[in-house]
Amino acid sequence: MDKLDLLRCEIDSVDKELVKLFERRMEIVTEIGKFKEETNMPILNKSREEEVLKKNASYLKDEELVGPMKEFFKKVMEISRDVQRERMLNRVIDKKSKIKVGFQGQSGSFSEAALNEYFTDVESMNVETFEDVFVSLHSNHIDYGVLPIENSSTGGISEVYDLLKKYNGYIIGEVCLKVKHNLLGVEGSSIELLEEIYSHPQALEQSKEFLKKYPHIKLIPYKNTAISAKYIMEQKDVKKGAVASVNAAEIYNLKVLKENIHHNHNNYTRFVIIGKNPEICENANKVSVLVNTNHEAGALFNVLRYFADNDISMLKIESRPIIGRSWEYFFYIDFQGNIHDEHVKKAIKLIEDNANYFKLMGNYISGS
């Protein structure tokens, strides 16, 4: 056996040990992935990966190998993320015989209408605030939640975007609901008698062109359109009105003073269905991700270009400020595709590799 053969034997011996260590690492990676699932943590932890590279570089005797060693471990950590992601996406969801779904507001709200359009034969539970939906989900009082996230007239609903980040929720579906706002009052009331109108701020904003015809009427933001309708029913005051649905008028025995007061008659609200874990069906065609990039020129462009490079249609981008870090933002991005498609996988991998923070929020069937 010549010298080359001896060296190759030594390499084979080292590789054998590497395989054992690699397999052990993947076992630990899988356990970490389970923990991340249970605690709704994102797969990518950029600061932890940088810490691993720095620490491992300190173990080297030959400083000239720092660069190659870092490339080696970057690839190992990339593979580790892939293993965790595949496990997360292919996990089997145990479906309960009876599903409980939460929504914000009262009976007669648009959120309840969206719930009934998406789900059949489920138990519903109403809560007071958007945050209560997330709290109920994470305390296992409900299995899913229904929340408005965007309106075609007034844009994104910032509070819901912020809560998705705060509670690490996943989007498992969506419903686009045509929204018609109506001015309601108690029996005996009229527009001329009104002094106060109650409704959710979004409903008031979507009806502002009609409402500004009556500058003497005080507009009072309230928790929800249906809660507003219920409130004026309880007050029995002809001077109080509410902006809500015809369904709410029927439920709370109110009079429709004026129909369709919204200024955009192609007025739709997009509702998302949220869950504690991702659920991806075979024909999912819309992806939502959450990204943060370096606070420097061109950083966001370097992420967004991967959509064009991989022939992917981006549908929406919504920015939200990072509390405590002035002028830095999280970006919620929606785009067409299925995460099992190779070009989508490639784009996601490139975006994740070039982001400070990355989370796959969901892959689901578009509601539009």
UniProtKB/TrEMBL annotation:
Domain Chorismate mutase stretches: 1-88
Residue ranges of every copy of the Prephenate dehydratase domain listed in the record: 100-276
Top-level EC class as recorded in UniProt: lyase
A single BP term in Gene Ontology: L-phenylalanine biosynthetic process
Main location: cytoplasm
Pathway(s) this gene product operates in, as recorded in its UniProt entry: Metabolic intermediate biosynthesis; prephenate biosynthesis; prephenate from chorismate: step 1/1; Amino-acid biosynthesis; L-phenylalanine biosynthesis; phenylpyruvate from prephenate: step 1/1
Molecular-function GO terms, alphabetical: chorismate mutase activity; prephenate dehydratase activity
Keyword field: Amino-acid biosynthesis, Aromatic amino acid biosynthesis, Cytoplasm, Isomerase, Lyase, Multifunctional enzyme, Phenylalanine biosynthesis
EC number: 4.2.1.51
SMART domains: CM_2
Subcellular localization, as worded in the UniProt entry: Cytoplasm
SUPFAM superfamilies: ACT-like, Chorismate mutase II, Periplasmic binding protein-like II
Listed GO CC annotations: cytoplasm
Pfam family, one: ACT
Domain ACT span(s) in chain numbering: 288-365
Site residues, Essential for prephenate dehydratase activity: T269
Catalytic reaction equation(s): chorismate = prephenate; prephenate + H(+) = 3-phenylpyruvate + CO2 + H2O
Entry function: Catalyzes the Claisen rearrangement of chorismate to prephenate and the decarboxylation/dehydration of prephenate to phenylpyruvate.
NCBIfam families noted in UniProt: CM_mono_grmpos
Name of the protein: Bifunctional chorismate mutase/prephenate dehydratase
Species this chain originates from: Anaeromicrobium sediminis
